[in-house]
Amino acid sequence: MAWVAPVLGFIPLHVPWILGIPLFASPDPFREWYHGRGPGVGDHPVDGFLGLPAGAFYLGLLCVLAGLGGVLALGLIQDWGVVFPGWVPWLRGRRVPPWVPLTPTVLGSALMISYSATLPWQFAADLGDPGADDIFTPTGVLIGLPLLLAWAVALPLAGWSYYRRTRRPRRDRRRRSAAADDRPASPSGWPSIG
Q: What is the mean pLDDT of the chain?
C-alpha cells in the first residue's frame, strides 16, 4: 500500500500538469503558476529551469521524488530491502544496514505528516470558498489530498513494519542464565567462575 499512493496515485495525477494540461485545475491561474508567475500577474515573462517552464520543472521533480519514495516503500516490504540483490556490485548478498532505508523513511514521514497536519484547514478553505485565483478546482482537491493522506499514513507504517522485521533480538537475562547453565561442570566438581 505504501508504494501504491505515490506511484499509481500521485504521479499519474501530475503528468498532465507537467505537460501543461490543467486537469482538475482552473486554466488561467494554472497557466500563470505553470510558467512561474504568481496569480493575477498576467503575461509577465519568467524563465523556467533547464528549458522547462517553472511549474513543469517543479512537478517533474516532485514526481521523481514520489517515484523514489515508491521504490523506498517497496523496498521496506520486499526481501531486497533486507539483503542487497545480486545486481548490486560489491554488496550482493550482504545485509542492508537498517538505517539506510529507515533514515529517508523517517525524514519523509515527518515531512509528510507535518504537511498533512495543515490539510484540514487547506481542504476547508479550498472547498468552502473557491476563488477565481485558486489553481486547483474542488475536484482536484478531493482527488489529490486523499492520495497524500494515504501516503502519509502508509509510509510510516511500512517503516515501522521494516524496523520490527529487521531489528536485532533483545538479549534478556533468561537467555544468559540458560547459557551459563549449559556450560560443562569443572573437573573438580565445583562450579567454574566466569
A: 80
Show the cell assigned to 77.
516490504
Cα 135 to the center of its chain, rounded Å: 25
The pTM of this model reads 0.73
The span from the CA of 135 to the CA of 16, in Å, is 14
In this model, does residue 21 exceed pLDDT 80? Answer: yes
Spatial distance between the Cα atoms of 104 and 4, rounded to a whole number of angstroms: 18
CA–CA separation, 34 vs 54, rounded Å? 6
The rounded radius of gyration (Å) of the Cα atoms in the chain is 26
The span from the CA of 72 to the CA of 149, in Å, is 18
Residue/partner pairs of 51-60 with CB below 8 Å, 24 or more apart = 53/20, 55/17, 55/20, 56/18, 56/19, 56/20, 59/14, 59/17, 59/18, 60/18
H helix intervals, the chain: 4, 11-18, 27-34, 54-77, 99-116, 119-128, 138-166, 173-181
The phi and psi torsions of 66 (rounded to 5 degrees) equal -65, -40
Q: What is the pLDDT of residues 131-184, one digit of tens each?
A: 677 777 777 777 877 888 888 888 999 999 999 999 877 664 455 545 544 555
Number of alpha carbons in the 13 Å side-chain half-sphere of residue 81: 21
